[in-house]
Structure to design on (637 residues):
């Protein structure tokens, strides 16, 4: 864990531990003032240490933790009064609100306050979502958005007679998991109390605009929950409603209406408040609060840079997740408006800015549907649109969420649907959100039978290949999954220093590609691991080891000609950022053996929980160039 001798510049010892009895729903003047002081202190602290993530480039989320401080501070006071009456854990199904967990761990003495200065840094044990067992004071792993309430139901069943809280949001309540959790909680009369921040903001927009019929309160009432709705910034009313929920048996939802980031100039009510506060706005806010030392600390932060020079690739880097959108727009621009409206529909799951879909939304809004955080339903809607021959549904989200859609993928295949899927944030690169957001199990999409409707998995290695891939497969029938990383990637060069996938290149689905020839063995790679593997090959060749490199951009099709080439070589090493248990390498060795090939075989992939940070994830997993070089040298001995 990172240790620092620098003092946390906001005095957290000013926090006044308060004890509140839920049997008395009226605050005294002294209690009210203590709560207000604690709330302001915590909000200042959250703005400050999340802004260190902005300054370092590792990101983070400010708005959600900042919003929910009043309810968290009240819960803390209740837990201190009667811990035997509660399960004293701040369960939260909006995992990106991790700053809440870290701040409370520091206030409870489990985490040095100075550790907060390293929010989301590599090896700091402060990843972008809480992970049980990694961070002192963190008492649960939240996983992805909207996955916690069903789990909390089980906690309530295991703790009869105790009250269990689950912090939620209008975004997390859009996930289908919560509908199922609501029905069980009501049917079993579980003593679960939801505290929902209903601020009408998610990543890409306002639910009241893109889901105009959706109401958190009416939805939960329809499931049978008692709902206590009010102003989350009205401290007396908030406390009264929480007390009523605690003293009333059964599942209850406390819904708090407030704008996003109340009181932060430039962010209040804005979708930008969902993510990390900008350095500029953080400084402006902290200066208004006379937090001079905090401002000076933020100003002193130097953004870390990747200083390694990768051989074999250019100094031109681009984000394939955005290039996907550009490539789709280019294809759509060549067909008429009438044909676009008839044959193509794009369905977003509140991540259009992260997956490149915003490019399509801006260019052709008439074919774009802004939907909510409902990956399963949105994928199926895209598949249903693509059921008729000649029609294409387009769907995109993060690769970590592919696992949630496996059943829907099967149904799409059984119905001969045509869907072009873009799953961004594949692998582990630049993933400060860490383990729960790793896009590791993408091969799960290839879960059909040999004679099933065609499914193809593609992972282009640079911006040029992404464009060529989209061009080649856009109008193809079947399910097409195109993966990209969160990180930017450099353009791959040939041995003469020219762009390998330049203007003359044509992407051929199902064909592997020789990046470098070699006589002593081959590395097989793809995606963002390819340029790292290429660097390793270039350096090995400089040392006199004639090692080659194969790009496998179509992950689930066997190229028999290339398989023979690799199989007759002295060794084969698969390098990927997918899960070692489920990725390409877990299949590739079997493919070789089935064909009678027996080269030395090894496989490098993601195999342990993450370390946070950005590019640091690759050496942490042993799939960086140095680790690849060492593995090759083991194989050629």
């Amino acid at each position: 864990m990172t240790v620092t001798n620098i003092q946390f510049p906001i005095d957290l010892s000013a926090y006044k531990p308060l004890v509140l009895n839920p049997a008395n729903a009226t605050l005294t003047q002294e209690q009210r003032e203590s709560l207000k002081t604690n709330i302001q202190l915590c909000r200042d602290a959250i703005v400050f240490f999340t802004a260190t993530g902005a300054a370092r480039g590792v990101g983070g989320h400010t708005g959600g933790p900042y919003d929910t401080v009043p309810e968290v501070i009240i819960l803390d006071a209740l837990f201190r009064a009667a811990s035997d009456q509660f399960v004293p854990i701040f369960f939260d199904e909006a995992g990106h609100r991790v700053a809440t967990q870290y701040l409370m761990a520091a206030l409870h003495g489990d985490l040095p306050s100075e550790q907060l200065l390293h929010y989301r840094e590599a090896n700091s044990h402060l990843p972008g979502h809480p992970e049980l067992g990694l961070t002192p004071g963190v008492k649960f792993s939240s996983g992805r958005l909207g996955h916690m309430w069903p789990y909390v139901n089980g906690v309530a069943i295991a703790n009869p007679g105790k009250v269990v809280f689950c912090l939620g949001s209008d975004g997390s309540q859009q996930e289908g998991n919560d509908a199922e959790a609501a029905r069980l909680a009501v049917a079993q009369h579980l003593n679960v109390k939801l505290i929902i921040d209903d601020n009408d903001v998610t990543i890409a927009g306002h639910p009241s605009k893109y889901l105009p019929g959706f109401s958190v309160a009416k939805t939960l009432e329809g499931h049978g929950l008692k709902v206590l709705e009010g102003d989350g910034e009205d401290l007396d009313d908030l406390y009264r409603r929480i007390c009523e929920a605690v003293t009333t048996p059964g599942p209850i939802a406390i819904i708090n209406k407030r704008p996003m980031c109340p009181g932060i100039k430039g962010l209040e009510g804005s979708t930008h408040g969902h993510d990390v506060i900008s350095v500029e706005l953080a400084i402006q806010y902290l200066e208004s609060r006379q937090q001079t030392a905090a401002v000076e600390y933020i100003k002193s932060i130097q953004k870390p840079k990747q200083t390694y020079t990768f051989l074999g690739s250019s100094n031109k880097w681009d984000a394939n997740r955005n290039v996907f959108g550009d490539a789709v727009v280019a294809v759509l621009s060549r067909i008429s408006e009438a044909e676009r409206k008839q044959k193509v529909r794009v369905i977003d799951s509140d991540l259009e800015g992260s997956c490149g879909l915003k490019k399509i939304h801006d260019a052709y809004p008439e074919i774009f549907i802004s939907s909510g955080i409902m990956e399963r339903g949105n994928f199926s809607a895209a598949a249903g649109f693509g059921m008729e021959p000649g029609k294409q549904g387009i769907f995109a989200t993060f690769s970590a969420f592919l696992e949630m859609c496996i059943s829907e993928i099967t149904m799409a295949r059984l119905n001969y649907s045509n869907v072009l899927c873009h799953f961004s944030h594949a692998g582990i690169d630049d993933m400060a959100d860490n383990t729960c957001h790793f896009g590791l199990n993408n091969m799960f999409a290839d879960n059909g039978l040999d004679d099933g409707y065609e499914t193809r998995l593609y992972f282009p290695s640079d911006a040029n290949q992404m464009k060529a891939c989209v061009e080649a497969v856009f109008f193809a029938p079947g399910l097409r999954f195109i993966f990209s990383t969160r990180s930017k990637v450099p353009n791959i060069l040939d041995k003469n220093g020219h762009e390998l996938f330049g203007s003359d290149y044509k992407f051929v689905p199902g064909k592997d590609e020789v990046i470098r020839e070699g006589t002593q063995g081959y590395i097989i790679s793809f995606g963002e691991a390819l340029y790292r593997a290429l660097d390793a090959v270039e350096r090995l060749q400089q040392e006199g080891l004639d090692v080659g490199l194969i790009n496998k951009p179509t992950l689930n099709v066997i190229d028999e000609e290339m398989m023979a080439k690799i199989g007759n070589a002295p060794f084969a090493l698969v390098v990927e950022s997918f899960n070692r248990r489920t990725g390409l390498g877990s299949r590739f060795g079997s493919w070789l053996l089935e064909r009678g090939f027996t080269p030395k075989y090894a496989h490098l992939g993601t195999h342990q929980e993450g370390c946070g940070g950005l590019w640091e994830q690759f050496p942490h997993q042993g799939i960086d160039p140095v680790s690849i070089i060492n593995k090759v040298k083991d194989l050629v001995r």
Observations:
- The chain is about 35% helix and 15% strand.
